[in-house]
Every structure is written in C-alpha cells, then in structure tokens.
Amino acid sequence: MLTFSKMHGIGNDYIYINCFKETVTDPEKLSVFLSDVRFGVGSDGLVLILPSEVADFRMRIFNADGSEAMMCGNATRCIGKYVYDMGMTDKIEISLETNSGIKYLTLYPDANNKIESVKVDMGKAILVPREIPVNSDLERFIAQPVTVDGKEYAMTCVSMGNPHAVVFLPEVDSLDLEKIGPSFEHHELFPDRVNTEFVRVIDDHTLQMRVWERGSGETFACGTGTCATVVAAVLNGFCKKEEEILVHLRGGDLRIIYHEDDTVTMIGPAIYVFEGKMEYPNL
C-alpha cells in the first residue's frame, strides 16, 4: 500500500509522499497517474519528502505531466507544516534542500500547536537572462516587447529557482489562459519552457495575478511565480523594495517582500486536506 497526503497552498495542490516511510521508484509516471482527477487523486503534481545530507529535509517535485521542477514555493510551506504536524521535527525554523538550493523556513503554530502559516526565505532573484534561462544577450530582461500569437506584450523575466515571464495588463480576469498559456510556455525565448504570470497592478502595495505553470497549466497559485511577480513589479516601478506586497491569486493571498539585497521573503498559509492509501499502481 502507498500512503499519501493531499495538501495545498492557497489552491496550489500536490500529493505529498513521506519517503522516510514510503519508497517511490518511478516518480515521473506516478505524478502523471496521481494528478489525474478521474483515475488518480487529482493535483498539480507530486512532492516527495526525503532525507537530506545538507539540510533538515529534502524535496523533489514533479509536475502533472511528469516533468521535474526545480522547486515550488507553495509546496515548501506545505512541507514545513507536514514535518512539524506529523512530529518529524519540533523545530520552528528548518532548512529544506531543493533542486534550486537550500530554503529556510519559519513555522508559525496556531493555538492547537498546528502550523497555520509559513515564512520562506526564497533566496535571491535571478535577473541575468542566460541564468533564468532566456535566449537573450541583454543584461536584464525588463519590459521587453515580445510577440506571442501575433500580439505584443511587455515582458519581464525573473528566476526564483524556476523561470518566470511576467506580463502586466490592465485586467486579467477575462484572459483565456487555456488558449494563450501554451504559447507563452513553449515560446522560442525559453529553452526550458517558462511559467507565465499575468498581473494587474491595483496599487503600489497590491497586485492581482493569474499563472500558467509549465507542465501543469493554470493553477490557483504559484509561490515562486508570486515572488517573481513582486520582483518584476519593483523593476518596473510599480512597487518598492523592503515593503510588503499583498498578491491576490485565484486560490488566496500571499505576502511578499523584495529586499535590498535582492532576496525575497514569502509568507502564506499551508493547508492539510486528507490522507489516503492505495495499491501502488501498475505504471
């Protein structure tokens, strides 16, 4: 039997497997199977919680199409809740190894000693195009004109461990992301594909965002994408460093601070949905 937990960070939902107890031999195929809402469980992908030689814990994350991601901000918060609530640690400050480096989490227990929200030091924003990666020789890719499906967008590119393209628009509610999202994801500018954030500026402390995630489609939230969005908003002059920015996503809100040293802090909830057991599928 395979034991798993379903958790979400403001609607960005993943299946979590505790690999201190369970063995997963084919995570790419398992992620595709479990993510299917009809034949599996239904999720944006699969997260493995693993031992680490360099941090308190390690995570691997797989998208709904089976591709492996570098990291996920919402999933880091959920892992913080999981390891504390399940008694795997009694520390409220932990380190988490990801494919894009070690992230540092601060856990906030509620009155019942369960984790309600988590603050994550997301590290430094990467702005050099070839490191994001973007096929560009510019020093930074800020508000550059990019044509997608015959329409020109002013695009800002940032990596927060995953590559992001941020586009600011007058409104985002009416966008048909199922139609335009794949064209951004697979644009020739991005050798590793890209996550795309479509953003409306409400004021200098408030943004509204929708996200198309590579390998998963539109999701209700994206932690690294929200961080990239705030960085892009500062670079475009809409917001300021060292000020907390509230970002409204389809699944809820995140609070982000872009610091003077180019590091980014993310604060948001982590929600446990349910635990389940199933026969390990024949993949």
Automatic annotation (TrEMBL):
Subcellular location: Cytoplasm
Amino-acid positions noted as binding substrate in the UniProt annotation, renumbered to this chain: N12, N63, G73, N74, N162, N195, E213, R214, G223, T224
Gene Ontology biological process terms, A to Z: lysine biosynthetic process via diaminopimelate
Keyword Cytoplasm attached: yes
Role this protein plays: Catalyzes the stereoinversion of LL-2,6-diaminopimelate (L,L-DAP) to meso-diaminopimelate (meso-DAP), a precursor of L-lysine and an essential component of the bacterial peptidoglycan.
Assembly with partners or alone: Homodimer.
Name used for this protein in its record: Diaminopimelate epimerase
Organism of derivation: Ruminococcus callidus ATCC 27760
Gene field: dapF
